[in-house]
Amino acid sequence: MNTVDIAYRMQDVHSDIRGPLFLEAMEMQRAGADILKLNTGNPATFGFKMPDCIKQALARGTERALGYSDFMGMPDAREAICAYHKGKGIEGITPDDVFIGNGVSEVVSFALLPLLNAGDEVLLPTPCYSLWSNSVRLAHGTPVFYTCDERAEWMPDVGDIRKKITARTRAIVLINPNNPTGALYSKDVLLAIAQVAREHRLLIFSDEIYDRLVFDGASHTSVAALAPDLPVITMNGLSKSHFLCGLRAGWMIISGPRDATKDYRAAVAALTSMRLCANTMAQLAIPAALADSKTPRDEVTKGGRLYEQREATVSALADVDGISFVKNKAAFYLFARLDEKFGVTDDRLLARDLLHATGILLVPGSGFEYPSPDHFRIVMLPEKEILADAMRRMGAFLDTYHQ
């Protein structure tokens, strides 16, 4: 039988979060190994429970979820989403600007496909959550990576963004709060990026899935609230703030001048209607979740699990010789740096060696399109005692490691 050739668009598509090393770890687990999965941000697997308000909303609305909903989403869910983002300062939006999808993962494809022709460029941060870079490639676009500066707490380098713009550039992607760095972008940086988009007539995609998981009394600012004159696509959802990854509740909102996005909106509507509708059970949860600010707030304040797990991780990691990091201000990730003394030239090999020596599964920096092999992401979702012990075991492994 002839070999089935794959399409060229798949050549650079990769997923290190659940890629070959993850599959290897699962084989080890089936053989009896104890694997600590610090590779994926999946709260439910670490004992985070569904909030009672979500359970009640699902129980009350089950019958409503049996049929297809409107292809854009249930009206009450879109109204709740619109009200939430208006409360964050996004002007001029209505429920008709909201498209609900099966997680942000799905709406990213809805957002990119109508925009890109073959060879069109999208500016993406590095490090970058690979959903975005892979989705650009699958849409026949070209990802162009701008630098986020570790020395400036992982803020986007606006000068580098400007240098990367060409005649083929169509959009700038912001991931704020950021995955994998946990950075929270300042208002000044967002205003500067909006000005770049204004000057070059670029669309802004803003992935804000972690906007409710912000530490130390800080607050998140939506770029769309700072630039009502620009077309901005804001994305958000419930996977992280209310631990509902499996329900796949995500959405996108189109804001800015309607005459500039008329054709784009129609194209997004055509795509969303092709898949009939998003998961209706998940849509039942949206109004209840967006009315529940207490659940995420309790997690990120002192005494909350996410807060205490972050503190335990950074405290233990600070004692590991040869690792440095910028403490995250949001989300539940650290993007740590390895000293040159380890001689790491292949970060995927480092991750594999760590897995086999300790049972700790991490994603190396190259899995986030990072150009140098000296970083890795830590997911801070296990209980604080487990995380502190994992950091100590990692330190013991590194004490004798060199590539």
Report on the structure:
The protein has 403 residues and is of the alpha/beta class. It contains 14 helices and 14 strands. The protein has helices spanning 20-30, 52-61, 75-87, 104-112, 130-138, 158-164, 187-200, 223-226, 258-274, 280-290, 294-300, 305-317, 347-358, 384-399, and strands at residues 36-37, 98-102, 121-126, 142-149, 155-156, 169-175, 203-207, 232-237, 249-255, 323-324, 333-338, 360-361, 363-364, 375-379. Strands 2-9-8-7-6-3-4-5 form an eight-stranded mixed sheet. Strand 7 (203-207), helix 8 (223-226) and strand 8 (232-237) form a beta-alpha-beta unit. Helix 3 runs parallel beside helix 10, helix 4 packs parallel to helix 5 (130-138) and helix 12 (305-317) packs parallel to helix 14. The longest helix is centred in the middle third of the chain and has 17 residues, at 258-274. The mean pLDDT is 95.
Defining traits:
about 400 residues, alpha/beta, eight-stranded mixed sheet, four-stranded antiparallel sheet, about 40% helix
* Coarse morphology: globular
Number of strands: 14
Low-confidence stretches: none
Number of helices: 14
Summarize the amount of helix as a percent range.
25-40%
Derived from helix and strand composition plus strand pairing, the structural class reads: alpha/beta
Task: Tell me what portion of residues adopts beta-strand conformation.
Answer: 15-25%
Mean pLDDT score: 95
Summarize the helix and strand pattern as letters. HEHHEHEHEEHEHEHEEHHHHEEHEEEH
**Largest sheet data:** 8 strands, mixed
Radius of gyration: 21 Å
Strand order of the largest sheet: 2-9-8-7-6-3-4-5
Separation of termini?
A: 42 Å
